[in-house]
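User: Good morning. I'm curious how norvaline would be positioned relative to this chain. Could you predict the structure with it bound?
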Amino acid sequence: MMRHFLTLNDLSPTELGDLVRRAVALKQAQGDARQSTLLHARTMVLIFEKSSTRTRLSFEIACAQFGGSSVFFSPGDSQMSRGESISDTARIVSSMADLIVMRTGAHERVCTMAQYSRVPVINALSDDFHPCQLLADLQTFYEHRGEIRDARVAFIGDGSSNVCQSWINAAAMMEFSLHVGTPGGYHPDPAIVAAAKDRCRLTDQPREAAAGADLVITDTWAGMGQEKEKTQRFAAFEGFQVDNPLMAKASPDALFMHCLPAYRGQEVAAEVIDGPQSVVWDEAENRLHAQKALIELLIS
Ligand code: CP
Ligand code: NVA
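Assistant: Good morning! Here's the predicted structure, ligand included:
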């Protein structure tokens, strides 16, 4: 049966746990000459309607390491930017390619791509979700601290961000408690919070959210497409920077994560992201390994 990966909920909790462990194994096998040729003579098409460094890099390198080739459409390249429909594009691309990786704005755009595609579609970030990031983040936690079940996790900043909303999905699936410290007006979608039941709690007190946390996470205060809202957003998020006094509220061995790109002096202080509790470089590298595990699951 053909499967897509549009949100974390497209996997079962068991599959998600297995995928994290498979990603660790693939990382250990990195450089092994007997690497899989899973994508030999196959093609991955990346359709990106927003900028990217890590996501493009990790998917294209994953494809190359699996023996496949990739075609990249940057924002404005394809006829979609001139009004060709997503459904027509999905039919054309999936008649030739074996996998579609799409980064877009409105989440329904990647859902439409999946609806009309004959091959698996991966959400490489939409306005609402960033599930590929979560695969790498869960792998990173697992490598540093073991199972995340029953851990206490804090997300500080923009609760409506795609990264936070995917963390809420993860809390329900992996059974940890997520405390989101976010100001009024930037709450996550209530339906996503409700689906996580008592695994997700909201507060407008960032230090309360961080108290006793095993992991502290943040994301940019103005994501892609929100650049014009910077003034009002920066005012709303004042007091929500992850700095050393905030990290001092967390557990002494708490980890710090950020999907990157990061803006030092805004959502995170340099002392934290460049400090000993930060695992952001592992997180970035793990995009490659976790997405290789995802490709195996969707293609094999
Ligand atoms: N974290 C992340 O998705 O980075 P890019 O926007 O560089 O792909
Ligand atoms: N929330 C950020 C994530 C970037 C990887 C954005 O959407 O721009």
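Residues 280-299 form the longest helix (20 residues). The chain has a mean pLDDT of 97.
Let me know if you'd like a different ligand tried.
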